[in-house]
Structures are given as structure tokens and as C-alpha cells.
Amino acid sequence: MSEVLVSHNIRGSHRQILKEIFSGMAEVNFLPETAKEDRIKVIERAEVIISWDPVRELSAEELMQAGRVRLIQLITAGAEHLRFELLPSGAVIASNPGAFSEPMAEHILGMAFALAKRLCVNHAKLRQGKFDQRTNNRDLRGAVFGVLGFGGIGQAAARLMRAVGLSIFAINSSGQTGETVDFIGTLDDLDFLLQQSDVFLVSIPLTLRTRGLIGARELAVMKPDAILINVARGAIIDEESLYRHLAQNPGFSAGIDAWWAEPSMGGGFKVNYPFFDLPNFLGSPHNSSITAGTMAKAIRLAAQNAADFLSGEKVRGIVKKEDYVKG
């Protein structure tokens, strides 16, 4: 029987999900509760590691003992945090696409409409005793929802946006999709997408190609009253360029859930420019995916993907090292 090693600290009912999926297929070991003297033994036997961040959850020495590992299955959808040089060279690495897409899609819709309807601005005015019925809100029905990164998150958001009357223009890696869209292209079509979008969503992975992808030139291409939303990674957008564009173009607005410096990156949360002084800016603490039940779904999808791998079936979300590491 195969052995699956779970290095992330998973407890309670989430463990039952793993045991259920691998029942009769693989023995499941939980590394955080394994005695120190037994850790190397279970690592040496493992064929699959299920992890959030393997380099944080296993030491470099322990990873060197993972010679039998054929799959490293991530619970998270992103892979930019991985240190590929420390991982077993022969192992397939799979992310967890779509694991958090539904709550994130609702968050995206909420941000877009909060900015379009100027909810935070009007709330602040009311607190000051100002009853502003002169400044128009904005209709989004009939507008274009542009999606940079049409994976699980982008597709889920597009379904919600289409339901309230927006057209869907999108970019993915292939330029093809089975989803209902009004336009589908690749990164070669980025300028066209920027020009057409009334609401522009960044939901593309952070890779070598997408780091700093949206800068001053790209922002200048967008409509003067466009709404930009980033739920992917902060580094995809140049921070200074975004701040200056917002400050100089009050009709333009942005909703940011993914930041340039976050606690999970090893430091604290900070911004280098006074975004929160701007009325056309809305932020959230990278919590678009955090709702009750989200982690259970993510663990189930990750475990099922690993089970499919062990059964010789197609695996979702295979990570290409060359997308993240130069040379």
C-alpha cells in the first residue's frame, strides 16, 4: 500500500476527509504529530506529500530523505513561494487550482460593486453629515468584465458577473476555454483586454513572466474610469505605478486583496504609499478566500488530486518549474 505524508498541520474533521479519500488506497501519516525520532522513517517511505509549504514544514535534511516521493501536492493554489532547489528533483508538483474560487468570486463581485456604487465614499460622507445625492453612482450592467488569468477563480467570478449583466473578456495560457465568454485570448492580447475592460480582474499566478506585468504603461492604456481588482499576488502590479495612477486619475479605482508585503511573507503588512488616503481605493487583508468551509474544500480537492495521481489518472494543476525559476 502507498504511503501519503501530510506535513501541514491538519486537525479534526479535515483529517477524516483525508482518511476517507485514501481509504483502501494509501496509509496516511501526519508529520506534525510524528515523534522526532520517527520523522525520517515516515518521510523515507512517503510517495506523496500533501503540504502548504514543504520547505517550512520539513527541514532541508528531511527533504533530502524524501527519495521515494513522486508527488508533492499543495493545498494552496499558488506556487510562487516554493524553493524548487530544495524539493526532490524527480517529484511532480501540483498546486490546487479552484480550491478557493467560490468565496473569492463573491469577494471580487463585492469589491467591484462597492467601488462602482461608491459605498465606502458615501458612508464616509454620511459620517461627516454630508448627504450627497448629486454625485452619480455607476451602472455595471452592460459593462465589460476583463479577466487576466481565466482559471478557477477567474471563471467563478465571470459566472457571477455574467449573471448580473456584464460581458466577459478573458485571457488564459491557451486562448481557449469551454466557458461562455465574449472574448478569449492569451497574454499577447493584454493591451486589448486592458483597453476594453470596465472592471479588470487580476487572478493570474505570479510567475517570472507576470511579476510586474501591470505597470504605468498598462494602467495608462485602461479606461479612465476603470475598476481594477487584484486577488492574485501584489507583485503582479507595480505598487508605485498603481498609487500614482489612482492619485492622478480620481475616476479610476482599485480594490486590492493581495499586497506587496504581507505577514505570510516573513514580515509585517505595509504599504509604501498612502493608498488609504485615497477615496478611490478599497482594501481587504488578503482574506477573500477565508470563509467557513473553505479549508475543508481545499483539503478535499488536494487529496482527491493526489488520489488520482496514485490511481494513474489525470492530475490537475501541475506546476512547471521553468515558470518560476530562471535558467
Descriptors for this entry?
2 domains, alpha/beta, 12 strands, 327 residues, Rossmann fold, single chain, 31% helix, 5-stranded parallel β-sheet, 7-stranded parallel β-sheet, elongated, 15% strand
Structural overview:
The longest helix is centred in the last third of the chain and has 17 residues, at 294-310. It contains 11 helices and 12 strands. α1 links the parallel β1 (2-6) and β2. With 327 residues, the chain is α/β, with parallel strands linked by helices. The strands form 2 sheets. The protein has a 7-stranded parallel β-sheet, with helices on both faces. It folds into 2 domains: 2-98 and 293-323, 3-Layer(aba) Sandwich (Rossmann fold), CATH 3.40.50; 101-283, NAD(P)-binding Rossmann-like Domain (Rossmann fold, 3-Layer(aba) Sandwich). It has helices spanning 13-21, 39-45, 54-57, 60-64, 101-116, 119-127, 152-163, 190-196, 216-221, 239-248, 294-310, and strands at 2-6, 26-30, 48-51, 71-74, 92-94, 144-148, 167-171, 183-185, 199-202, 227-230, 253-256, 281-283.
Short description:
The chain has 327 residues and is an alpha/beta fold. It has helices at residues 13-21, 39-45, 54-57, 60-64, 101-116, 119-127, 152-163, 190-196, 216-221, 239-248, 294-310; strands spanning 2-6, 26-30, 48-51, 71-74, 92-94, 144-148, 167-171, 183-185, 199-202, 227-230, 253-256, 281-283.
